Amino acid sequence: MMMLYRTSDLPRTIPVFPLPGALMLPRSRLPLHIFEPRYLQMIDDCLKTEHRLIGMVQPRAQKSGDGRELQSIGCAGRLTQMSETEDRRYMITLAGVSRYRIMREVSGFQPYLQADVSWDGFERDLGKPEVDQKFDRPQFLKLLHRYFEAQDLSTDWDSLKDADEELLINSLSMLCPFEQEEKQALLEAPSLATRRETVVTLMEFALRGGGAGEEILQ
Length: 218
Known about the structure:
Layout: E1 13-18, E2 29-34, H1 37-47, E3 53-57, E4 73-84, E5 90-106, E6 113-118, H2 137-151, H3 157-162, H4 165-175, H5 180-188, H6 192-207
Parallel strand pairs: 1-3
Antiparallel strand pairs: 1-6, 2-5, 3-4, 4-5, 5-6
């Protein structure tokens, strides 16, 4: 399998998989259960390519002013694992490679969506894991414990204490039950520190009893 380290290695047209609430970030892994015929075809076609990239993207809650129904920024992942069930469903894992910006949607003979994309501005995604210099792990875990209790969530706290900050913050961004627009804000965060600050804001807001539909991300 080809390893991609530079934006020049990445294809300019990729298959796109719109999925509400599904957040993938660079250097993270996203498991997916594929059963719709058009997306089964997408996986079959992806396996025939050298790069094996699929672009995850979230639909917009409402159409944008230009009529676009998808968010402009998504994240592409490399298909690294796949198993097939007896009734021909796929269990796959995508390894996050880089965020991208949709330039235009491409019409073709495939039953699934493709898009011309730009990788410009996301070069950091292809580098080494980010470091959050101001990350206060004890304080963050204290808030996280309160949030998990309030949401009736469970986790392996010992593993969280040892996880590096990028893995911890990105995993929580992907797994916590944040709203769709909030997950998009986490995806578009320009740095790991900004993403951590956003996660903290969202957890504190939930603990104060913030309800769905209230605007906190401007």
